[in-house]
Design goal:
Blueprint lengths: L1 H17 L1 H4 L11 H32 L1
Amino acid sequence: MKVINMILLAIPFAFLIFGITLYNRTNPKLGGFPFFYWFQMLWIFLTAILTSIVYLNERKEKNKTVS
């Protein structure tokens, strides 16, 4: 489970750091916002979801060891 959690936490980091060539453009636009901006905002929400999953996994693991 630790490896899965580490991978889930590494996904946003790796994608936003090493994927610059993917999102360094203006099209397609969404609601008048260039791709660069709305793609970054999308990753804020995706990162929050992935971090929540990791938190719940860690909490579940902690409860297993305490019981």
